[in-house]
């Protein structure tokens, strides 16, 4: 997967970065304020019109047909339609002027502030479907705004309460999105939850509610049919779909072949090539906090203080936690301070753009493989950035200051359910060097990744390595470091990794990708072609 700075200025979506969503809250307050004043004002004017209407009604009603014959009545009629009318005229005029003004203001405001559009609503629905599925959240609770974490993910806070719940209409909308995403089992669950709620929402005979119930029944019936059909023809799981292991229809479920299916057990397939489907299962399990490595491996991992790389750390050794020995993945705790992390966010924030990916034919598109926004920072943009680069160099013994030695810092902010599907950071896998630019051939592949977590994430958002069976939980100020290439410069496919969807909170990371060629003095080749680096 190739990433780059965006080249076209498309409209920025909102759901892929929490930073952009925050701005939206402020904008909503502004609009509500203006509308509130407008509504109060028009109500005031409408009251005036209403009192005119009421007064005239009584006058008209008390009169017989011959009213204009009476000179006083004639006078009153004319007064009503002249002097009295002035007030109504003024009120109507004021309302219409004001409403045109407010209308124009709101429209311009919405455009300037990049208000959400239907693609954002779709994105948000997708995110909810994905979160519920990945973290196996209780759907009923979720629809009431309560997020209950799976047992193995519980750290400090285990339940998150929102202030509001979803309506049956919302659940129907989300269910339909689950269906189009191929999550047939989940679509059915969403629709069933919607039915439950719609039943309760009904008080009295409400026409539109009946319509909704009807639509839910129809959708549910066809979702079940499709579910069972897909399961029958394609099996319970593929890259683009998921069903239950057994059909929903009890008659079909009695088939003997589904009785075997039911007992299907997960056996981790570590340190080897995984099919896309297998990788996805590993990804999800690791995201939800499952430990899938055997004790034999886990018992070899240590936490240690180290000064070995550089005397720079004699007074304050690096606090290294080994996450995996092969591939060598470590967490360096407190690599930057909380205020340094905040500063990096502050520097990146104004420059955030939707993550882009290069397609096979070379054009850049907005990424659905990675739902986040990214910004690039150069060393000279702030003294702190240079300082952190120096620290990285000392910590891992690689050169990272010059453009030929390492890339600029990439600051990333994930949005609602934001994730990054498994990939390798090294990207020069093509044996034909012609496909790479002269610059890329000159600097070489990404030998190592130094990723600093700039925020804590209340729930979800881990970095997981499906083949190595590793889960790294974000911790503000900690840095994850791993080698993408082995000592002979060949890509280590066991470093495939991805970012789990953010379930609750705000995730910010900073990536520093270090390039191979300039490290020829600091990271020398091994004796064996598959020898790996073990630093720090
Ligand atoms: O955000 C993460 O946890 C991983 C990010 C990542 O893998 C990348 O940016 O290449
Ligand atoms: Fe990565």
UniProtKB/TrEMBL annotation:
<dbReference type="GO" id="GO:0004656">
    <property type="term" value="F:procollagen-proline 4-dioxygenase activity"/>
</dbReference>
<comment type="function">
    <text>Catalyzes the post-translational formation of 4-hydroxyproline in -Xaa-Pro-Gly- sequences in collagens and other proteins.</text>
</comment>
<keyword id="KW-0408">Iron</keyword>
<keyword id="KW-0560">Oxidoreductase</keyword>
<dbReference type="Pfam" id="PF13640">
    <property type="entry name" value="2OG-FeII_Oxy_3"/>
</dbReference>
<protein>
    <recommendedName>
        <fullName>procollagen-proline 4-dioxygenase</fullName>
        <ecNumber>1.14.11.2</ecNumber>
    </recommendedName>
</protein>
<keyword id="KW-0847">Vitamin C</keyword>
<dbReference type="InterPro" id="IPR044862">
    <property type="entry name" value="Pro_4_hyd_alph_FE2OG_OXY"/>
</dbReference>
<dbReference type="InterPro" id="IPR013547">
    <property type="entry name" value="P4H_N"/>
</dbReference>
<dbReference type="GO" id="GO:0031418">
    <property type="term" value="F:L-ascorbic acid binding"/>
</dbReference>
<dbReference type="InterPro" id="IPR005123">
    <property type="entry name" value="Oxoglu/Fe-dep_dioxygenase_dom"/>
</dbReference>
<dbReference type="InterPro" id="IPR006620">
    <property type="entry name" value="Pro_4_hyd_alph"/>
</dbReference>
<comment type="similarity">
    <text>Belongs to the P4HA family.</text>
</comment>
<feature type="domain" description="Fe2OG dioxygenase">
    <location>
        <begin position="405"/>
        <end position="516"/>
    </location>
</feature>
<dbReference type="GO" id="GO:0005506">
    <property type="term" value="F:iron ion binding"/>
</dbReference>
<dbReference type="GO" id="GO:0005788">
    <property type="term" value="C:endoplasmic reticulum lumen"/>
</dbReference>
<dbReference type="InterPro" id="IPR045054">
    <property type="entry name" value="P4HA-like"/>
</dbReference>
<keyword id="KW-0479">Metal-binding</keyword>
<keyword id="KW-0732">Signal</keyword>
<keyword id="KW-0223">Dioxygenase</keyword>
<dbReference type="Pfam" id="PF08336">
    <property type="entry name" value="P4Ha_N"/>
</dbReference>
């Amino acid at each position: 997967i190739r990433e780059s700075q965006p080249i076209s200025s498309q409209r920025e979506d909102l759901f892929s970065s929490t930073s952009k969503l925050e701005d939206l809250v402020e904008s909503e307050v502004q609009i509500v304020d203006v509308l509130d004043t407008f509504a109060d004002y028009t109500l005031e004017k409408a009251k005036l019109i209403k009192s005119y209407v009421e007064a005239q009604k009584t006058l008209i009603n008390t009169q017989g047909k011959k009213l204009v014959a009476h000179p006083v009545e004639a006078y009153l009629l004319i007064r009503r339609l002249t002097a009295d009318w002035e007030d109504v005229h003024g009120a109507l005029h004021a309302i219409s002027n004001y409403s045109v003004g407010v209308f124009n203001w709101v429209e311009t405001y919405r455009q300037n502030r990049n208000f959400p559009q239907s693609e954002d609503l779709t994105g948000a629905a997708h995110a909810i479907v994905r979160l519920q599925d990945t973290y196996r959240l209780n759907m009923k609770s979720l629809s009431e705004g309560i997020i209950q974490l799976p047992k193995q993910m519980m750290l400090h806070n285990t339940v998150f309460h929102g202030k509001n719940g979803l309506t049956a209409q919302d659940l129907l909308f989300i269910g339909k999105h689950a269906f189009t995403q191929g999550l047939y089992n989940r679509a059915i669950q969403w629709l069933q939850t919607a039915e439950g709620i719609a039943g309760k929402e009904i008080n009295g005979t409400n026409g539109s509610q009946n319509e909704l119930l009807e639509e839910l029944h129809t959708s549910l019936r066809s979702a079940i049919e499709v579910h069972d059909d897909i399961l029958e023809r394609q099996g319970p799981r593929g890259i683009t779909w998921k069903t239950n292991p057994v059909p929903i229809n009890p008659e079909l479920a009695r088939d003997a072949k589904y009785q075997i299916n039911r007992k299907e057990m997960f056996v981790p397939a570590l340190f080897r090539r995984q099919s896309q489907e297998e990788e996805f299962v590993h990804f999800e399990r690791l995201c939800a906090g499952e430990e899938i490595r055997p004790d034999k491996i886990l018992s070899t991992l240590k936490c240690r203080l180290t000064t070995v790389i550089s005397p720079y750390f004699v007074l304050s050794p690096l606090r290294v936690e080994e996450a995996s020995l092969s591939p060598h993945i470590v967490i360096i705790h407190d690599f930057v301070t909380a205020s340094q992390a905040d500063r990096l966010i502050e520097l990146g924030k104004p420059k955030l753009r939707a993550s882009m990916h290069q397609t096979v034919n070379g054009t850049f598109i907005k990424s659905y493989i990675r739902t986040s926004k990214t910004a690039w920072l150069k060393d000279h943009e702030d003294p702190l950035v240079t300082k952190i680069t120096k620290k990285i160099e000392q910590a891992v013994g690689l050169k990272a200051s010059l453009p030929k030695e390492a890339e600029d810092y990439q600051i990333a902010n994930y949005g609602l359910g934001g994730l990054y599907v498994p990939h390798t950071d090294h990207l020069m896998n093509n044996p034909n060097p012609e496909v790479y630019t002269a610059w890329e051939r000159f600097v070489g592949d990404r030998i190592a990744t130094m990723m600093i977590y700039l925020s804590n994430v209340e729930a979800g958002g881990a970095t997981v390595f499906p083949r190595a069976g590793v889960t790294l939980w974000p911790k503000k100020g900690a840095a994850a470091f791993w080698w993408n290439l082995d000592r002979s410069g060949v890509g280590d496919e066991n470093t495939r990794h991805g970012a789990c969807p953010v379930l609750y909170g705000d995730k910010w990371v900073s990536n520093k990708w270090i390039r191979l060629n300039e490290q020829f003095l600091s990271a020398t080749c091994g004796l064996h072609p598959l020898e790996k680096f073990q630093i720090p």
